[in-house]
């Protein structure tokens, strides 16, 4: 997207989104290659490892699009670059932690917990930041 003045209005969130897409493709390939190796076409075939890989991929797909949309909207609304970088990179770290934690074990793990908690807190923080920015209150540097 380009703003009316010809400048880049969402260049940071574009970069952050591209990094998330690379992670999404990696998670997708883990499912696809495992399916191919085990010859499981549809469903999980009662394979616990495949189920785990599908959940890692699906969980990413459930949370990341909304977070990236909100990130892009915050940037387009003029929220400061430091906030956009902070939110975007924190999301990436949170999703990597969650994928590593859940990918290793279906049981509770510290990386999985920290990834999920950080994602939820980040979504709430971005929503609050957006509401305050919309209302004209803003946060420092916003």
What does this structure look like?
This protein is mainly α. It has a single domain, classed as Membrane associated eicosanoid/glutathione metabolism-like domain (Four Helix Bundle (Hemerythrin (Met), subunit A)), CATH 1.20.120. The chain is built from four helices and no strands. Helix 2 packs parallel to helix 4. The longest helix is centred in the middle third of the chain and has 29 residues. It is elongated, with a radius of gyration of 18 Å. 25% of the residues are buried. The model has no long low-confidence stretch (mean pLDDT 90).
Keywords:
142 residues, mainly alpha, Four Helix Bundle (Hemerythrin (Met), subunit A), 0% strand
Percentage of residues in helical conformation: over 70%
Q: Beta-sheet strand percentage?
A: under 5%
Written as H for each helix and E for each strand, in order along the chain, the element string is HHHH
So, the CATH homologous superfamily? Membrane associated eicosanoid/glutathione metabolism-like domain
